[in-house]
Write a sequence for this structure.
């Protein structure tokens, strides 16, 4: 059989909603026409990081103008606790507060403004408790949301001793606010007989459904959740759309009126979790060439006050601690630290970028100490193709293209030539210094929890030949609906304008996973394909029966159905005839990712179906007087497999990269000594703007199919672009290193704000190396201490002090 060229798949078609986006007519949750009786809610938040609630007087709130209802935990009719992993978060504070910003009550009023004004009238008396505010404190006090995880191979203590080179160090890396343009919002209303209809800006409608059912004490079939689209989610709406959805549903049930909760940006910052910030301690031994012999990491991840998704995030950090490198002997301790702050959650990359940063920072150190180009040390440590190819979690890397991909980028970016130019520039300039770095990325695709890797679809073909596809994924701007529509159009041989994707709806496809882990197209595309193939099979059977066609000769293409000289009909006419012959024109579809499995206890198995590879080369310039930096040029090479939509995919790579640049350079979350997040609005929290994009940004796709049978041989696009921005951070470190004596490692924490760059410049001027030799970090002893039984671990639902 010849390989047919695709008609729709592989084309750079516009995002299916692009025209609506630019016209301002794309409907987001807050744009849904409101019922006249709609109430608006606001959430009352804790003013303390950790305290017992002595008294909560809400009488002034309840009697404020426009207020119709006030609810607290006592008003939750069903389960009072919820969480995506374990039910350890009260819907509203339960006798105590565990972070500054925690929801304590909610108010529904006749307007948004009146609800917000009423909230401020609460009189709450607290008795302060001792808070844990930093990861250092949390690690010392063994304050964990989940037990530590430890994996190791080889006699690491002895290998570290043997060196022949060895050093230790420490890195702090800040968190990141998702900063979706559309804030958290939910709109709930009652139907007859206890039905709840909920519109939620969420990556996870099924979880919102289950949660509402759970807290209202109703079966799931009474709750219907819909999401047309989000104005961005970036992980921040994977689980944490729930407090808003819960408040809307609860107040709708209480008042019998439709209720909308639309969080103000500052409230959104104060209530919801962010990317996990962390501290890592490391100890590494390596040869004179820079080949790693053994490495120990202690990753201290700030989880905030509850577990949320932190277990899976921390696991993914561990899973990406190798990046593209073979680690022969390793010891990785992952601490999931409980702090009195927002519960950190999913953010594009989901711990992966944090894991990759650890090893890249260490490799950068090694190169500095040995006086080598970091790219050479990277290459020396790459996974082999047929040997040195087993990951720390015992998965064989079968699809390794890092060698070819990095070689190609090295050539196309003219890395070696520009390295010389940068050196020259730095020799000639005293104030301005340039830096260059080329960093690879290997990113594992699949939810690490195997059961989540399933999806469903429901496809209707109407008698006019138009098709409506519903699938379990959600659209957040990433182009999932465009790609799924392309898949359906391709399978049915019809044009894109004949295919429409409906809102995500829990009453159409049930029990869906979050649209996350970059698997949206992989899972839902395959499920939609399955549905389309089932309909096609019924149609083929009809053609065989009715027209005497040989099933193999029937072609669905260019809006036509053709079978030799027996039929040439438009698709519409053909399905009309099939309908008259009572052929079902709709079908469900299902997909589960093959091959994957993994043991949660030992963190071993094959958690990922395949890997995405990428690399970026970044050039920066820093001002050594002010500490400011500018990204001058970036070249990115991305392994998209056989891209379903190159234009949409290009947007993902550019957007992910720039978002990563924000994480590592300008976005700084800062809590004061009392645990109050002070950077809670764009006035103080700086996401990249258009002027932060480099003048030269070259993105190319690496020509490579997917070795696994992924949808149309494509690869995931959502998250792996983000960690390519580590190149920018290390280019800044490179620029600082140009001011240091040979062999000195630059102590640079992330984000590399102007202050941190200045501080690092001062440190290297002093010649002091923060990475002190030995002594400080004893991985072995720390593991033993961390794994001792912990008495104070909070259990699910552990509420009252
Ligand atoms: N792109 C846009 N425009 N908006 C988003 O919110 N989220 C990212 C990524 N790209 C996001 C995005 C995250 S965190 C993930 S996991 C994936 O998209 C999810 O979509 P996918 O699985 O369909 O790629
Ligand atoms: N990635 C992203 N989101 C998730 C995952 C994951 O591995 N597991 C649960 N939610
Ligand atoms: Mo993305 S962090 O997996 O929602």
């Amino acid at each position: 059989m010849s390989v047919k060229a695709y008609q729709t798949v592989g084309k750079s078609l516009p995002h299916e909603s692009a025209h609506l986006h630019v016209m301002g007519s794309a409907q987001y949750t807050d744009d849904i026409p409101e019922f006249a009786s709609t109430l608006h809610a606001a959430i009352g938040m804790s003013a303390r990081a950790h305290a017992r609630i002595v008294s909560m007087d809400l009488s002034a709130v309840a009697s404020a103008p426009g207020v119709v209802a006030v609810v607290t935990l006592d008003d939750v009719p069903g389960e009072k606790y919820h969480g995506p992993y374990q039910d350890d978060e009260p819907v509203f504070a339960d006798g105590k507060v565990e972070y500054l910003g925690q929801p304590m009550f909610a108010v529904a009023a006749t307007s948004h403004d009146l609800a917000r004004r009423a909230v401020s009238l609460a009189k709450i008396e607290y008795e302060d408790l001792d808070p844990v505010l930093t990861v250092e404190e949390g690690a010392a006090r063994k304050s964990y949301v989940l037990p530590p995880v430890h994996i190791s191979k080889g006699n690491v203590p002895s290998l570290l001793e043997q060196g022949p080179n060895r050093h230790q160090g420490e890195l702090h890396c800040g968190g990141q606010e998702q900063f979706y343009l559309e804030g958290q919002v939910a709109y709930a209303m009652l139907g007859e007989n206890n039905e709840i209809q909920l519109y939620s800006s969420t990556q996870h409608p099924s979880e919102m459904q289950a949660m509402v059912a759970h807290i209202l004490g109703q079966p799931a079939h009474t709750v219907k959740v819909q999401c047309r689209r989000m104005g961005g989610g970036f992980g921040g709406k994977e689980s944490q759309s729930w407090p808003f959805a819960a408040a809307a549903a609860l107040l709708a049930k209480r008042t019998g009126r439709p209720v909308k909760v639309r969080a103000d940006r500052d409230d959104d910052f104060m209530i919801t979790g962010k990317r996990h910030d962390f501290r890592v301690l490391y100890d590494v031994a390596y040869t004179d060439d820079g080949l790693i012999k053994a490495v120990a990491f202690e990753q201290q991840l700030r989880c905030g006050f509850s577990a949320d998704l932190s277990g899976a995030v921390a696991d993914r950090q561990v899973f990406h601690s190798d990046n593209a490198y073979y680690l022969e002997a390793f010891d990785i301790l992952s601490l999931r630290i409980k702090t009195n702050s927002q519960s950190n959650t999913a953010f594009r990359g989901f711990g992966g970028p944090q894991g990759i940063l650890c090893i890249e920072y260490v490799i950068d150190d090694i190169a500095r100490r040995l006086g080598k180009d970091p790219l050479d040390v990277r290459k020396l440590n790459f996974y082999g193709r047929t040997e040195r190819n087993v990951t720390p979690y015992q998965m064989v890397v079968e699809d390794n293209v890092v060698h070819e991909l990095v070689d190609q980028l090295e050539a196309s970016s003219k890395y070696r030539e520009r390295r010389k130019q940068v050196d020259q520039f730095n020799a000639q300039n005293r104030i301005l210094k340039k830096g260059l770095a080329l960093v690879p990325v290997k990113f594992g695709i699949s939810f690490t929890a195997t059961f989540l890797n399933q999806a469903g679809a429901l496809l209707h073909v109407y008698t006019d030949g138009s098709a409506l596809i519903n699938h379990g994924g959600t659209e957040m701007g990433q182009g999932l609906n465009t790609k799924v529509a392309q898949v359906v159009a391709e399978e049915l041989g019809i044009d894109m304008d004949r295919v429409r994707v409906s809102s995500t709806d829990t009453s159409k496809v049930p029990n869906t996973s979050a649209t996350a882990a970059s698997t949206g197209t992989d899972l839902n595309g395959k499920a939609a394909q399955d549905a389309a193939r089932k309909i096609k099979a019924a149609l083929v059977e009809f053609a065989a029966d009715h027209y005497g066609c040989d099933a193999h000769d029937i072609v669905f293409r260019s809006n036509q159905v053709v079978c030799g000289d027996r039929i040439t009909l438009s698709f519409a006419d053909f399905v009309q005839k099939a309908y008259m012959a009572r052929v079902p024109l709709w079908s469900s579809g299902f997909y589960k990712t093959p091959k994957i499995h993994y043991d949660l206890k030992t963190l071993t198995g094959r958690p990922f179906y395949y890997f995405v590879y990428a690399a970026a080369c970044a050039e920066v310039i820093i001002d050594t007087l002010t500490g400011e930096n500018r990204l001058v040029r970036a070249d990115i090479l991305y392994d998209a497999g056989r891209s379903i939509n190159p234009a949409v995919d290009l947007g993902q790579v550019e957007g992910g990269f720039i978002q990563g640049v924000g994480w590592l350079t300008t976005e700084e979350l800062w809590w004061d000594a009392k645990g109050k997040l002070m950077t809670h609005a764009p006035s103080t929290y700086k996401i990249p703007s258009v002027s932060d994009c480099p003048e030269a940004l070259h993105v190319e796709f690496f020509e490579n199919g997917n070795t696994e049978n992924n949808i149309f041989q494509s690869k995931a696009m959502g998250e792996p672009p983000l960690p390519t921005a580590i190149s920018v951070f290390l280019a800044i470190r490179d620029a600082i290193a140009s001011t240091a004596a040979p062999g000195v490692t630059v102590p640079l924490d992330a984000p590399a704000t102007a202050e941190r760059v200045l501080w690092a410049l001062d440190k290297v001027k002093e010649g002091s190396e923060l990475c002190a030799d030995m002594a400080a970090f004893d991985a072995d002893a720390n593991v033993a201490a961390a794994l001792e039984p912990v008495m104070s671990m909070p259990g699910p639902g552990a509420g009252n002090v």
Notes: The chain has 20 helices and 31 strands.
